[in-house]
Amino acid sequence: MLKKAVFAALSLSLVAGLAQAATLVYGAGGEPVSLDSGTITDGNSSMPQLLVYDPLVKFKKGTSQLAPGLALQWKPNKDATEWTFFLRPGVKFTDGTPFNADAVVFNVNRWWDRDAPGGAKETGKSFTSWQFIFGGFKGESNSLLKSVRADGANKVVFTLTRPFAPLPETLATSFFGIASPAAVKKAGAKYGTPAALPVGTGPFVMQSWQTGDRIVLTPNKAHWGKKASYDQLVLRFIKDPAARLNELKAGTIDFTTDLNPEQLNAVKSDKNLTPVLVPSFNVGFLSLNMNNTYLKNDKVRRAISMAVNKKAIVEAFWNGLGVTDASFLPPALGWANSKNVPDDYRFDPAAAKKLLAEAGYPNGFSIDLWYMPVSRPYFPTPKPIAEAMAADLSAIGVKVNLKTEDWAKYLDDRNKAPGFDMYMIGWTGPYASPYNFYYTYYGDESSLDSNYRSPKIFELLRQASASSSQAAQARAYSQIHQITYDANVRLPIVHSRPLGATRTYVKGWMPGPSTLLPFEDITIDGKK
After folding, report:
1. Residues linked to residue 147 through DSSP beta bridges, in sequence order
2. What distance in Å separates the CA atoms of residue 503 and residue 254, rounded to the nearest whole number?
3. Contact indicator for 245, 267 with CB cutoff of 8 Å
4. 3-state DSSP call for residue 337?
């Protein structure tokens, strides 16, 4: 009888232990568009990608300083037209296949070469992030990459078409995680979707992706870096910031980001919660499409820039966690701004209305303004912010029709002719250089949504990226600042400090300027 009792007690203890397996639950602001690296530029896709994949280069925790990833070290030639990356040996993808130089070359080629195995022609994918960061694809005149090759098992050589000092920083972004070639080949066009889950070398292994609900991951016990101390990581898709905060208060999620800044006081007043302020390294802006009949006119664009009361909007919706100015760059990159540009755009509805009359529209006109359907760090409550901008524009006779659609479709349709008349979007810098802000939205291949192209900006971007000297870069970027300010095509509304929050037992989370990770450092001792 005693043996049976002991056995029963042990069995109950084992069952209880299994039932109480430690799970960390994150409240995400939306669902990924894709988890195939090289195909996205949005934050909802970027964060989970870095859970599954490792990039060649990483950022030190809580900073924008570079650290080894799948590459232990890297070095350029004298003019930075050739870069050699020395890879971490002995690493495997979570499907058991080896990581090596050939795997890196396979990934880079499929992003860059439309004809490569797993590339654009074979899969029908656009590889948007490659285009945004590296200018163009193989055979195109604006392609930064000339060739990539393996030099043995643990060395990769990138040859560029021009000098490019920030190559390691670009490869550290969340866009370029290295995927298992075997998994990509097996899944084809479905790779990186709920039907064919992503496979990398990263700190977590994806177990499931339930569309509209959640992603479930487990720690990669064979990872070369730090391993999570909990048993499971769940990413729940909760679009509404109020709903995320309510779930955090209830304890059904453990931590979250992109809360409404107005919720800061509610977080502070709850003894079970801890606020987390993410470093500001973003811009939220209103983008104007010069394909639109009205917006082709410079006076109309200037009128819109003077009609939107940016300061009042930021004061109303960011609760002290945002600033507005006349720069596309966040304050941390202020060294690259022009001293000749005013601190902010002039707010003058009367002068704006006069400009409309001079442009031939004394009675105004009607135009569409699209707002995103998900909260983002730069626009935590998109619809009310859009309504405020619409009200400001109505005061000068511009009737605004507010529109939105599914996030993935929103990101796609903005670049399809004729595009959105005006739309809200933003950018969190994936690395600490003005280049990634300006090139992403003013570079060679980034004009599909605005139909604004400036050869002078292209040339200045090349000058800036060719040098590692901040003084030389500042001379080029200050000219870009003046040109973009005068163009009134992308109107910066805010640089925000995103609000996150945790349950008090969540320890070790330290978001950086460019990423919310690492999550594997988090502990949840004391979670019930």
Report:
1. 159
2. 5
3. yes
4. coil
Give the pLDDT confidence score for residue 133 in this predicted structure: 86
Question: What distance lies between CA 8 and its chain's CA centroid?
Answer: 52
- How far is C-alpha 276 from the chain's CA centre? 19
Secondary structure (3-state) at 483 = helix
Closest CA to 284 of 180, 469, 426: 426
Tell me: pLDDT of 10 over 70. Answer: no
Q: Alpha-carbon distance 76 to 60, whole Å?
A: 21
In a 3-state reduction of DSSP, which class is residue 500? strand
Tokens 């009609």 correspond to 307
CB-CB contact of 480 with 435 (8 Å): no
How much is the pTM?
Answer: 0.85
CA gap 525, 508 in Å, rounded: 11
Please give the structure tokens belonging to residue 187: 């899944």
Contact of 44 with 374, CB cutoff 8 Å: yes
Give me the pLDDT at residue 377, please.
85
Cα 298 to Cα 289: distance, rounded to the nearest angstrom: 12
DSSP for 145-178? EEEEEE-SSSEEEEEESS--TTHHHHHTSTT-PP
Element (H, E) at 424: strand 422-428
pLDDT tens per residue, range 373-389: 998 889 989 999 999 99
What SS3 class is residue 398? strand
Q: Is 66 helix (H, G, I), strand (E, B) or coil?
A: strand
């109020």: which residue's tokens? 242
